[in-house]
Amino acid sequence: MSASYLAAVLLENQKVNPLFRFLDIRLIRAEQGEAVLHLPARSSLCQGAGLIAGGMLATLADEAMAHALMSVMQPEEGCVTVEMNIRYLRAAHPETTTALTAMARVLKKGTRMAFVSADVQDDQGHLLAAAGATFSFVSRPS
Fold this sequence. Notes:
Layout: H1 3-9, H2 18-23, E1 26-31, E2 34-40, H3 54-70, E3 77-88, E4 99-109, E5 113-122, E6 127-139
Antiparallel strand pairs: 1-2, 2-4, 3-6, 4-5, 5-6
């Protein structure tokens, strides 16, 4: 992924990542194989029982891992998630949690695949979920 994408997505009113705009995710940093993403907690992220949906934690973790990997990729490389696992360790409720943070790091980058991990925490530092994923490199369309 190009450095220009990472520079553009870091801007406060970025327009290069529609998912981030839709969910109000903010990339805090992505450099040297690590990334940090921030997501404000709100009731629109909840499932029927009033807790923040596990899928939201998974999405945040997946995006953090992808951006950590992008920070060490060549401009002509793209990446896709091949598989991902996640362990949910603690529930998050928007009345007591104001923000979610995902921190990811590249564990190993090979020539065809990469292995990345991420933790998702609430604003009090409680670990909510731990994830891992395998990414495959793909050619970017010209």
